[in-house]
Design goal:
The protein is α/β, with parallel strands linked by helices and 712 residues long. It has 14 helices and 35 strands. Among the domains are: 1-29 and 299-324 and 343-379 and 386-405, no CATH class; 31-115, Immunoglobulins (Immunoglobulin-like), CATH 2.60.40.10; 587-693, Golgi alpha-mannosidase II (Immunoglobulin-like), CATH 2.60.40. Helices cover 23% and strands 24% of the residues. Strands 12-13-16-20-21-22-23-24 form an 8-stranded parallel beta barrel, surrounded by 4 helices. Helix 1 (2-18) crosses helix 7 (357-373), helix 5 runs parallel beside helix 7 (357-373) and helix 12 (483-502) packs parallel to helix 14. The longest helix is centred in the C-terminal third of the chain and has 20 residues, at 483-502. It is elongated and about 90 Å long. It starts with a helix and ends in a 29-residue tail after the last strand. Its EC number is 2.4.1.18. The active site is at 327 (nucleophile), 382 (proton donor).
């Protein structure tokens, strides 16, 4: 109730003082560089909020970095500096398109600094320079729809796709998406990677590191220019072309947005912008994140709210993103940032003095903005705390997100693989973690994300197969074999299928993990020290060798990576056909610790997982809700998935059901469950063993036509 009252009061104050919520959240049309008029002349308005500055001028290529008298701004009563630059006599802008620009200001203590404007739309770093420069981005011409041309503004050609019933998210990073050791571009990603994602069956991409960040190794999480497109990968218009092409393919485009903290970089970023340590941030110790070595926003500050809310709207308005994954939300919502703190679920942990009410109310405001202005917008919050009402609408008093990232699942899989041998895997504990989420609050489940792929951690494939991946991934007949690799491939498929089927109402996979990418991610870096511990961290000499994705491994006919890639594609297309990821009917009928079997229903499908390392079961009875007959539509043991065909669609077996209570289900049927396999059974009317031989067929998937509930 207290949060709700704070929220209402802020909304009321915005309406009374700013001309409404819509105008307040369009700060980018007022601040920064905008075309406009002054005393009958057309030109460029530049505005910057810097209340602590004593003087401010605009410098750049346009004035040879020496401000004339007419290039000095005036400060209004609210601490905003204003400057108007009329067009040249020939009608060209005073600041040409794609030229460097900074603001030169005098701080309260008399020091002079050159800063990149806080609302800049693009910032670049020359190859022979350390510092970034702001770049005025205002193409003189408008391109035809879909046209990518220099000095022409990109015009979108395709509409946003409809909001999917369930998200199958492909988390990706444009810079490291190349097969070669280089920084990839937006246009190369558009041409080479988007078709892969669509072919796999994902319906959404979540792009990391879009906001400009001067330190590449931060993975995009130490943002320096919040309105600027990451220039390493290309121009603003090239990013628009990428988004437009994704929309043509029917892919929803989500942006990994960082509003939880900002880079401490005072040269390239907004930290100490006017010489004070407050401004957009909390002053003193509260404004510094000790673990991340970054600045913490003051979400109760009026101009901070304007800046961040406008930023959220900017990327939706200008670049046609379809929504956001908000990073580090747990850190935002609590004064302790969720560090050195264990959440038990007690409501006192969420509704008390630990909670930063200003931050929670800001999240309510941004979700209010996004869902009211963009009805099809999708917002996902990275929260590990389990905050109640996190995924309930703002008008219910909730925080307003559509989904919470189900972060505990990845940690559980690491715990299971790291600490327990195969005979000690606890079926009940695994299922509990997969399904442990708040009622009526949707989650995005994932077995692993970019966090597990970074150097210092291990992907699931690496945990399962480790160094054997380097020597024993050849298909039989093409090289030596390994039981460790055989086990790893079997469990990799099972872990991913049970996670997509039980882990949430949507699913996420990080780029390359679908085929068991063998290398961790290591961004180019030099020797450094951990800011939280002071520990020395050796660099890698600035190498890009491990900052790429080896697509050639998945494409190779003689390597086993193709098996994992094919299985991932099949389980995504199975969701297209049956909609099981978000199906309301979810019933777990068996968690057998002795047999190591898990049996459950999701929608019309029956899933059978045998995690036992050695024991296979004949005529194993499994419960189901609906009377049969059933047929096999997906088996991890198909040859195309690197299996042994002990259970395969090719047998075209029909499984008749028997009435009578079994595992609290009204019907049951008997199956063969080989060790370390998973199988999915569907109503026989929607099964076709020859489906993958048809033009639209997916290898290994036995779904008739497009399935009963087909949706992209």
């Amino acid at each position: 109730q207290y949060r709700w009252n704070v929220f209402k009061n802020i909304r009321s104050a915005i309406d009374q003082n700013e001309g409404g919520f819509e105008k307040f959240t369009e700060g980018y049309k007022y601040y920064g560089f905008n075309r406009g008029e002054c005393n009958g002349q057309t030109g460029i308005w530049y505005r910057e909020w810097a209340p602590g500055a004593k003087a401010l001028a605009l410098v750049g290529d346009f004035n040879n970095w020496t401000p004339a008298d007419s290039h000095w701004a005036f400060k209004n009563q609210f601490g905003t500096w204003e400057l108007f630059l009329p067009d040249m006599p020939d009608g060209t802008p005073a600041i040409p398109h794609r030229t460097k620009v900074k603001c030169r200001l005098e701080t309260a203590d008399g020091h002079w600094m050159d800063k990149i404007p806080a609302w800049i739309k693009w910032a670049t770093q020359e190859w022979n320079e350390i510092l970034f420069n702001g770049v005025h981005w205002d193409p003189p011409e408008k391109g035809a729809p879909g046209e990518v041309a220099e000095n022409k503004a990109y015009t979108f050609k395709y509409p946003r796709p409809p909001k999917p019933r369930a998200l199958r998210i492909y988390e990706c990073h444009v810079g490291m998406s190349s097969q070669e050791p280089k920084v990839n571009s937006y246009l190369e990603f558009r041409k080479d990677v988007l078709p892969r994602i669509r072919a796999l069956g994902y319906n959404a991409i979540q792009i990391m590191a879009i906001q400009e960040h001067s330190y590449y190794g931060s993975f995009g999480y130490h943002v320096t220019n919040f309105f600027g497109v990451s220039s390493r990968c290309g121009t603003p218009d090239e990013l628009k072309a990428l988004v437009d092409e994704a929309h043509r393919m029917g892919l929803v485009v989500l942006m990994d947005i960082v509003h939880s903290h900002a880079s401490k970089n005072t040269n390239d970023g907004i930290n100490m912008f006017d010489g004070t340590d407050g401004m957009y941030f909390h002053g003193g110790p509260r404004g510094n994140h000790w673990m991340w070595d970054s600045r913490c926003f003051n979400y109760g500050n009026w101009e901070t709210m304007r800046f961040l809310l406008s930023n959220a709207r900017w990327w939706m308005d200008e670049y046609k993103f379809d929504g956001y994954r908000f990073d580090g939300v747990t850190s935002m919502m609590y004064h302790h940032h969720g560090l050195s703190y264990t959440f038990t679920g007690n409501y006192g942990e969420y509704f008390g003095m630990n909670t930063d009410v200003d931050a929670v109310v800001y999240l309510m405001l941004v979700n209010n903005l996004l869902h009211d202005m963009f009805p099809s917008c999708i917002s996902i919050g990275e929260d590990v705390s389990g905050m109640p009402s996190f995924c309930r609408p703002w008008h219910e008093g909730g925080v307003g997100f559509d989904y919470r990232l189900q972060m505990a699942i990845a940690d559980k899989w690491i715990e299971v693989m790291k600490l327990h041998d195969d005979f000690a895997w606890n079926m009940g504990n695994i299922v509990h973690t997969l399904t442990n989420r708040r009622y009526a609050e949707a989650c995005v489940g994932y077995a692993e994300s970019h966090d597990q792929a970074l150097v210092g951690d291990k992907t699931i494939a690496f945990w399962l197969m480790d160094k054997d991946m380097y020597d024993y991934m050849a298909v039989p007949g093409m090289g030596p074999q390994s039981l460790i690799v055989d086990r790893g491939i079997a469990l990799h498929k099972m872990i991913r299928l049970i996670t997509i089927a039980l882990g949430g109402e949507s699913y996420l996979n990080f780029m390359g993990n679908e085929f068991g990418h063998p290398e961790w991610i290591d961004f180019p870096r030099v020797d450094s020290y951990d800011p939280s511990t002071g520990r020395f961290v050796p660099g890698n000499g600035g190498s890009l060798h491990l900052c790429r994705r080896r697509w050639d491994l998945a494409d190779s006919d003689f390597l086993k990576y193709k098996f994992l890639n094919a299985f991932d594609r099949a389980m995504c297309h199975l969701d297209k056909a049956f909609g099981y990821v978000c199906a309301p009917n979810t019933y777990i009928s068996r968690k057998d610790e002795g047999d190591k079997l898990i049996v459950f229903e999701r929608g019309d499908l029956v899933f059978v997982f045998n995690f036992h390392p050695t024991q296979s079961f004949m005529d194993y009875r499994v419960g189901c809700r609906e009377a049969g007959p059933y047929k096999l539509v997906l088996s991890s043991d198909e040859e195309v998935f690197g299996g042994y065909r002990n259970i395969t669609k090719e047998t075209d077996a029909t499984f008749q059901t028997t009435p009578g209570n079994y595992d609290n289900r009204p019907h049951s049927f008997q199956v063969y469950a080989p060790a370390r396999t998973c199988a999915v059974y569907a109503p026989a009317a929607w099964a076709d063993k020859d489906a993958d031989r048809k033009p639209h067929g997916i290898p290994g998937l036995a779904v008739k036509d497009l399935g009963p509930y087909f949706s992209r």
